[in-house]
Amino acid sequence: MRGAVLRAVSRTAHFATREKVIVMPSVKSSVKGWKAAATRLAVLIVIVVQPLGLGTGWTQEPVQPRIDEEFAKQEKIYRRRDAGSYTANRGLLNYAEVLPSGFCEALGSLGSSDRWLDIGAGEGHAILDYYAAKDDAAPAEKCGGSGPRARAVAISIEDRRTDKWQQQAARLGDDRLRYLSGKRLGQYSREELGKFQIITDVYGGFTYSQNLSRFLDRALSLLDIGAAFYTVVANVHLENGKDKLGTWYQTELVDAASRPVTVCSWLKQTTCTKVTCESKSDWDEPSELIKIGKVCSGVSVPKLNIVEYLAGAPPGRRFQMAP
Ligand SMILES: C[S@@+](CC[C@H](N)C(=O)[O-])C[C@H]1O[C@@H](n2cnc3c(N)ncnc32)[C@H](O)[C@@H]1O
Fold this sequence. Notes:
2 domains; 11 strands; alpha/beta; binds S-adenosylmethionine; four-stranded mixed sheet; Rossmann fold; 323 residues
């Protein structure tokens, strides 16, 4: 019964997310009052719906036509540029807040020939902060230091470059600052992108991808050995089990026998990596701040299949590990 409650809560609250994320000012991606309201509503729905024997929000088997409809809706969300869109302008200090400890030091230790890839960069604000001129460089001094600047590549499905980005890119040249759009990470060849010493993903592809294992496999293939991928994922079962009762989940994983699996325990089955997960006890949403260090070249990410996808900003996703 508890699983069923959580699944129903997941779905209902997810729709609330799609409505409300548009006004969220916070990097912790969101929600306070409305989430509590959504949870109360969801619990009510569960109380009403369960005795009637109606299904819960998430289904175990993929229902292909419905998933395809959700994928199509998601495409529209990426294309929206109005108030219905999502937060795409987090700066470097926002990144520092939501990425695992050690990110700023790692960024600061890069040399001028090193490379930083930001997947799902949105407006590329974090990179602009990193490259800000000296008189405007407060965020970068706190995160990334004052040493030489690495070359930076921003990837976004849709082109969200601002005038500020265009001016900065024109000043620095393509060699230092690149913005790639029109495709997802997985649609670029490894040769096109090259290798990186740091990859970040702040509520980008790791949060939105429909094929999480393939997405991660591609991201890790772009890392040099010794380099690391830094990301964050919200509303997940925590590795330390400290997510509060009544939590709703945006990204859920189950094993081949449909038993719940945490994102971190799945990640830790990836060969040739060192995975660390941190969570913040004072955050409203149970989130994992994840660092994946690449320690050798034989990386193999355990495959996940998507069984449910609910379009949104961010989407709701349920994956099942392949047998
Ligand atoms: C919510 S915005 C976050 C933007 C930025 N990281 C920030 O925090 O302000 C999501 C971004 O992820 C991008 N995105 C989602 N899935 C992606 C994928 N598979 N490959 C590349 N970009 C992706 C979207 O195009 C968008 O730029």
